[in-house]
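S., here's the first fold you wanted:
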Amino acid sequence: MSTIKANTLLHSDGSTTNPPAIPALDKRMAKAWVNFSAQDTVIRDSYNVSSVTDNGLGRHTANFTTAMANTNYIGISGGGVIPDNAGSGQGRIHMINKMTTTHCAFSGFNDASSAYEDYEVASILIFGS
């Protein structure tokens, strides 16, 4: 890994510029996210998520590659795509269950049948320090 240090950055015309933002360090950017199949925990794409643990039907844990600074982050469900054989019009709720600095547990719940279920596509998004 390389490090660049500079006191002043210059535009090609010689004028000074504002220092560039580093998105990975910006609080407005996601600290972790994952898109995966809850049916077999295959990760389709992710950032700062090393793996997803299957904790039973509809219950999963996203394990962070780099730990969060504290547990005051926010976990947002990106929702999910229901299995092909599920009926249409049934409500789905994606809940964040437990947050630690190293992982975030969440679940998929079908409010129409009052049962947990595995989505074909599930996703979660993390913002914080």
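And the second, which I think is the more interesting of the pair:
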Amino acid sequence: MFIALCLLIFLPVYAYSGQIGKMAPSFHFVGSNGNAVTLEQFKGKVVFLAFWAPWCIPCKEELPELEKLYQMYGKDGFEVIAISIESSDKNIAAFLKKVPLSVHFLIDKKNEVSDAYRVSSLPTGFIIGRDGMIKFQHRGFDKESPAVYEKEVVELLKQY
């Protein structure tokens, strides 16, 4: 019983923290405009991969902050890819109508990408360096998050 309890508590933390320093799992989507989108397209850039859903309240707070970061640092090689685990195009469209954003939006209808990144809660974010390696991971969102994100993004943009 004790071992099962320890595994239940610590295994998710271990799985989550073990991704830093590893190559970001590749993905391939067909975007809403019909164009293919792959992670490899963004090699050489710093990428914030944000997993979200329209019903997730912290996600609704995080995405506008990521948009601000994108507006500040996009010209320097920073990209944001927001991957929704919500499969309803209607729900996503309704959200984007209320909160217009210019970052890349993709829908993970089969949860293949969220599974590859071991996403277990929302929002979950991964900051990927220019080399394609996962440099930082974040779960949740609070008032300190935007400053932390900016610090990490700026640090990575200065590399190379």
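Why I say that: Confidence is low (pLDDT under 50) at residues 1-16. The first helix runs from residue 2 to 17.

Talk tomorrow,
H.
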